[in-house]
Amino acid sequence: MKLPELKIGKLVAKVPVIQGGMAIRLSTARLAAAVANEGGIGLIAASGMPFDELRYEIQLARKLSPTGIIGINAMVAATEFLGLVKTAIEEGIDLVVAGAGFSRDMFALGRESGTPIVPIVSTPKLARISEGLGASAVIVEGCEAGGHLGTDRSSRELVPEVVAAVKNIPVIGAGGVLDGADIVEMIKLGASGVQMGSRFAASVECNASDELKKMYVRADAPDDIVLIQSPVGLPGQALRNKFAETVLDGTVPPPTECHRCLKHCSHKFCIIKALSRAQQGDVETGLVFSGNNMRKVDSILPVKEIFARLVSEAAAID
């Protein structure tokens, strides 16, 4: 299959791939720009970033990819969610992807600025509501995805239901998409494109430490993936390590201080610090979010090579 273009509002991506916004600081300017330069849509993970840092990352991505499509991903659950969205819009971001919750306020910001707002949804009902509020597209994320999950159902079940539920906006499939065959499968289910996180987590341009990238590549069995309860109030899918085991058995140490980064937090552990530890290379006491098909990734590749393989793999399928 020759992969189609992905159109979101006035934006046209030559390859129908959105790179997932992986926090904390895995998806920064270098990765987003590399994806944009290959014809996809690159996302900077804004959650956990001070506004000045977000401005810097957006400006850097623009320098690295002057004509590519650059967006942000931000968690609605974050205390500074609206501030992050406003900051990105002020910097002329191309689109805003929002997950881990739902906000009606973001659509007003999108209308005022003409910025496409793309919520991550897990039900046909929320997709219809999003379209009614002005969403330019919806990303349908199933239980195969890494990080926070809004459903225990497969994206392969949800995508056709959401396609039938909306009228005039593109539906993007997410969760368990790692190769060209997965993209073709999603398109045949009615999706206009896909969002991929895990494959880009093990890319050269990802801002993760080498140790974290190697851990992604080493994951090769289904029981390497566990489902934990996040302080955000949603289940989260992660790689099994010492930290995940302490969350599962209830022995995880609670935070000694709180920066109130989340609107609502169980204070079971500090998720930003746990994700940051992993990003910096502490893969034993850090939290390593991952999709459940990470075992399909067996090498760390440049983004250019990842795209070449995706297009080639898709082309080999009728």
In short:
The protein is of the alpha/beta class and 318 residues long. The chain has helices at 29-37, 51-64, 81-90, 105-113, 124-133, 155-165, 180-188, 198-201, 210-218, 242-249, 271-279, 303-315, and strands spanning 6-8, 11-13, 17-19, 41-45, 69-75, 95-99, 117-121, 138-141, 147-148, 171-174, 193-196, 225-229, 235-239.
Descriptive overview:
- The protein has 318 residues and is α/β, with parallel strands linked by helices.
- The chain has 2 domains: 222 residues, Alpha-Beta Barrel (TIM Barrel), CATH 3.20.20; 85 residues, no CATH class.
- The chain is built from 12 helices and 13 strands.
- An 8-stranded parallel β-sheet has the order 3-11-10-8-7-6-5-4. Strands 9-13-12 form a 3-stranded antiparallel β-sheet, with helices on one face. It has a two-stranded antiparallel sheet with strand order 1-2.
- Helix 1 runs parallel beside helix 2 and helix 5 crosses helix 6.
- The longest helix is centred in the first third of the chain and has 14 residues.
- The protein is globular and about 45 Å long.
- The model has no long low-confidence stretch (mean pLDDT 94).
Structural class by sheet pairing and helices: alpha/beta
Write down the CATH topology of the largest domain: TIM Barrel
Number of domains: 2
Helix content: 25-40%
How much of the polypeptide forms β-strand, as a percent range?
15-25%
Along the chain, the helix and strand elements come as: EEEHEHEHEHEHEEHEHEHHEEHHH
Count of DSSP helices? 12
Please render the helix and strand layout as text:
Blueprint: E1 6-8, E2 11-13, E3 17-19, H1 29-37, E4 41-45, H2 51-64, E5 69-75, H3 81-90, E6 95-99, H4 105-113, E7 117-121, H5 124-133, E8 138-141, E9 147-148, H6 155-165, E10 171-174, H7 180-188, E11 193-196, H8 198-201, H9 210-218, E12 225-229, E13 235-239, H10 242-249, H11 271-279, H12 303-315
